[in-house]
Amino acid sequence: MTDAKLVGDGAKPAVRLERELQDPPATVWLALTDPARLRDWFPCGVEVEGGEWRVGAALRFPFPPEVIEMTLTGKVLVVDEPHELSYTWGDETLSFQLVPLAGGGTRLVLTDELSAGIAARNAAGWEHCLDRLSGKESASWQQLFGGYSRMFEPELGPQEGPPAEYKGDVDAVA
Asked: How many CB atoms neighbour CB 11 within 10 A?
């Protein structure tokens, strides 16, 4: 399933994915901000300066060394609990919007503003991550990456796979 869409209304291209979750926005918010819950679905660790999600707080994103020896840094841009969270993730900007649904669920919208050459890689990775968050099975990362590459290359050009330093299971890439 390749459900990410390209959006181009910002300075950089972006991929956008949506999931309808059964939990209310307050519970989904915790999945986005609680370090213990982030470990269940996010591709790396998340460390927030002072332990509090506030605009301007510095962020660190250490990846497991057995996967890749890399730590990204970032900064919190928007905190509107439980509606919107946005921050930089290395050179990218991640934005999460939480929209309440009838019946108590949440529509989660993830937008990743990124470099054109990594759109397919990240779309495949985020699809895997959001499937984990929602408790769904996902196609293989390689299958997703191939589909997104075919979709995005005409507009964005050649798509890069995992970084050369990547040591982990290619199905865990985000």
From this structure: 8
